[in-house]
Amino acid sequence: MVNSLILLLSWTLISGVARGQNDTEPIVLEGKCLVVCDSNPATDWRSSSSPLGISVRAANSKVAFSAVRSNNHEPSEMSNKTRIIYFDQVLVNIGNYFTFESVFLSPRKGVYSFNFHVIKVYQSQTIQVNLMLNGKPVISAFAGDKDVTREAATNGVLLYLEKEDKVYLKLEKGNLVGGWQYSTFSGFLVFPL
Asked: Mind listing the pLDDT tens digit for each residue in 65-96?
């Protein structure tokens, strides 16, 4: 009887503490997250992996890549004269969505973060690098100080992508140096939609 009373009292206290403040917050108990769910249930419960029609964010929703250049990269060496910047060392490729052609292929609709950092090689030279989305420039970065041998051209952006959108870097002008891993390209899924 005493054990039943203690158990009932404990359950009452825990259930009061474990409630989220609203429908979109995870359940928290003593600062530890117990469950993280998508706040928008699947519209078609039959296509959901959950019999309740709630999609739980799983490890397979993790998408990230980071790649570097390890040597000089002249435009004349680029295959097919596409001027796509190729990265020969992939440091991170969670989900394997960064291809050997140095193109990121979006696995799902969502908001993604991208950034790049490129170095110009020679004095008296300007470089321009575009981040391309499905063949169209989205953002650019420039480096063109004539008195500096190595100067950084850096930029970053959040993009709304659909499934199978392609994101890559294109060299519009100049030459890049990737020795000592100076030129980098990284991206990750911020959240799926």
From this structure: 999 987 765 555 554 467 888 888 999 999 99
Residue 147: is it exposed, middle or buried by C-beta count within 10 angstroms (0-12/13-18/19+)? exposed
* 63 close to 97: Cβ distance less than 8 angstroms: yes
For 63, counting Cβ atoms within 10 Å of its Cβ (0-12 exposed, 13-18 middle, 19+ buried), the class is buried
**Report field, pTM of the whole predicted structure over 0.70:** no
Gap between the Cα atoms of 126 and 121, Å rounded: 9
Dist. CA 176–CA 73, nearest whole Å: 6
Q: How far is CA 125 from the centre of its chain?
A: 31
- Among residues 100, 128, 97, 127, the alpha carbon closest in space to that of 114 is found at 97
Closest by alpha carbon to 64, among 90, 85, 38, 87?
90
Distance CA 88, CA 96 (A): 15
- Cβ-in-10-Å burial (0-12, 13-18, 19+) of 28 comes to middle
- Residue 16, SS3 per DSSP: helix
Residues in CB range of 16: below 8 A, 6 or more apart: none
Exposure string (b/e) for 97-128, b if CB count within 10 Å is 16 or more?
bbeeebebbbbbebebebbbbbbbbeeebebb
